[in-house]
Write the structure tokens for this entry.
Amino acid sequence: MPSGSTSLRRIAQRSISVSSRCPRQAYASLATAASSSRSYDPTLDSSIPQAPRHLPTQPPSFKPPEFRKSQLLRQYISLLKSSQVVLLFQHNNLKASEWAAIRRELAAALLATDKDAASISPDTPPATTADSIRFNVTKTHILEIALQLLEYYKPPQLSSSTSTSAPTTLAGEEPAYTHYLSEYAQRSIRKTPPHPLKPLMSGPIALLSFPSVSPDHLASALRILSPDKQFPAPRKRINPDYHEPAVQSGLQKLILLGARVQETPESQERRDARFLDNWGIRWIAGLNGLGGLRGELAALLNYSGMGLVGALEANSLNLWRTMEGRKQMLEDGEKGEKSE
Amino acid sequence: MSRVSPYTFVTTVPTVQFISNICLRRETVQLVHRYRHPHILRSPHPQPSIMITRFLTDVSASFNPFSPRAKTVRSFLALLPANARQTMKVNVKVLPRTSAEDGSLSLQFKDGKQLEVDLQRLKIKEVMEEVDRHSRKLGRQAELSDG
């Protein structure tokens, strides 16, 4: 017992010494002094600026941002916003080796197109390059929501509460955030009409995205991924790699479904014209690219120039011919007189 | 005299391990797995569905991707395994958006049975059931003839 009582006493002493060292009492005395000198002012709290809870570039999202779904939605929206043409493919159980082989062939074909374009016009930097074209597998349902948001949700400009067009929530308040991942955006697409590409949004979907409309690149991608009579696949003699079993078995399982072309001010009235089927895609790819157009223009100028030169020359040529004919006649007459 | 417990059958349900030792067919394993873990069917992330495809010899499909009916055909094509083209003929035709045809799906089995799927009526689950029903019959016949 004596040992136990001494230890208890020691603990008590230590706790007393700790409390005496603690500066809490000093703060408490200060606080009481302050409250006594000035009464509590409720308007003071609102005037104190609140520390921001998030970065200005990362506003809070409706669903938790650490979810993969949120990040994928964000990624798909940015992909669709930054690419003017997107081709949608269905991929039926492709193996990793087949994906790798197809991506390799696609990259090689697009690089060759880049080189052709560079040889035709070396000064102008191309809008579409081979490394900016991506072939990605997507989560279908999240892609559908991203398409829906881009089609029907226009983020309103948040202004002061006095403006009449300020967006309001169901409760009638102005929403705090209106970015694509915000609650306001998610709620506002609930009662919109179905997206024109909605029937395509089932099963496994892969996206081939082009940053700008480039018929040359589109045509060379179609030659690799979905060849037909108009866009034939490369011959075995020219490109033997394309005819490897890994590429061919993979391509049999890839189906081109349709395409989405990004909204422009001209295309706002005709919404369905921006969602193309197989034939629409081939029509765009069949358009003459920049190189082709330049060739046509050069041929046209050449031809008309030749005509112009001919027309301008014609008068003087006629004059020269008559004069020459007359000279010949006179010379012949002189010869005749001499001989007589 | 001891009575047989009414729970005997319940207690002797073969485990997944046991079944997979005898027979490694993935559809069988999945059936037993479903029996033993019914809560998985109720989960929001169900297991990917598997169809018996080893008795199919010919699949010819055509669909208009912009028609809502195409979903069944496309889901069916997605159910075929990665090496499907080595064991069966697969013929896929994509129709233009404006086509009047509604698409079709016709199958042929190893015993020569033709199956024209009614896309107006059947959803993918029902198509799978119909295909599996005939495939199981063929499977039983094959087992009997082997044994």
Summary: The longest strand of chain B covers residues 56-63. Residues 8-42 of chain B form one domain. Chain B has a mean pLDDT of 81.
